[in-house]
Amino acid sequence: MPIVVTLDVMLARRKMRSRELAEKIGITEANLSLLKSGKVRGIRFDTLAAICAALDCQPAELLSYEAGPEDDAQD
């Protein structure tokens, strides 16, 4: 997947545990874990906004795009 989730990095920078973030934004720790690992196919904008508000960051600090060989083949 060319989208890389760096939520774990931001949590470390903010010295916040996953449990605390999950409680603040109203999702389960299991769902947050799936998001951190990049094993989700999408994220709702309101969830992303809540994460950004809780961590005082921008979406670009949590998500990045890294092209791979499969992306080049689609051109």
TrEMBL record:
<dbReference type="InterPro" id="IPR001387">
    <property type="entry name" value="Cro/C1-type_HTH"/>
</dbReference>
<dbReference type="InterPro" id="IPR010982">
    <property type="entry name" value="Lambda_DNA-bd_dom_sf"/>
</dbReference>
<protein>
    <submittedName>
        <fullName>Helix-turn-helix transcriptional regulator</fullName>
    </submittedName>
</protein>
<dbReference type="Pfam" id="PF13443">
    <property type="entry name" value="HTH_26"/>
</dbReference>
<feature type="domain" description="HTH cro/C1-type">
    <location>
        <begin position="13"/>
        <end position="62"/>
    </location>
</feature>
